[in-house]
Amino acid sequence: MKPSKPVSPGPSGGPAPADGARPGIAESIRALSAAQKAKAGAPLYSRLVNRPLGRVLAAVAHRLGATPDQVTVLSAACTMTGIVLIAALPLTVGAALATAGLLVLGYALDSADGQLARLRRGGSKAGEWLDHVADAIKLSSLHLAIAISLFRFADVVGSRPALLLLPLAYSAVQNIHFFTYILTYQLRYNGGTPLAKDEGRAGMLKSILSAPTDYGLLCIVLALRWAPTPFLAIYAVMLLGSAGYLILALPKWYRDMRAL
Fold this sequence. Notes:
Blueprint: H1 25-33, H2 44-64, H3 68-88, H4 93-119, H5 125-153, H6 155-159, H7 165-189, H8 200-209, H9 215-221, H10 228-259
Helix pairs in contact: 1-2, 2-4, 3-4, 3-5, 4-9, 5-7, 7-10
């Protein structure tokens, strides 16, 4: 959950009800729609699916009286359950779909905690810390769980053990990307969150080109783990795309920091 400009959850963007009553779900969704984070660089799945889904979950959580930290913990619980089951369950269709579903839900809740903080008129440093720690644990363990799963259950890896290098390399690339992006973001905006703006075609093109880096898309791809050969082919393409994006992004982020 990242501290950000609060939104007013009252009707049509107006002030909150004077009696302190929590707004309805639809009312909260409308308020959040008018105060989304900037879309610049957000991959396509995240901006078209995950943020809108997180918006709905945030509105529901707000109606139920949940706190952002509680949503963060629920997100982490869904994600870590999915990761543990990736390593523990055989490569069946049901297991692949169930684990991917848990990761998708965890990711949506990860978006919801920050949006809930905006509904509640701002987040906290402790909440931001908790959110980033959960992300760090997730990204440090997901690809290791995939490697364990492939080693235990994928026959193709038995004849080609070098394939286990794919999740290990992916883990390194995704962790470097996440931590350097977070550092750049925090330094650029001093811990705040810019609101959405109209980016035009250039912003949408950037979202499409950054698709290989999209954690949400990776969650969907993991639903194919029951078929290791096509899964590994798509997984390798995403790894190459993520590595290429990172190689191009790091010099740009450095130049951005020099310009501050």
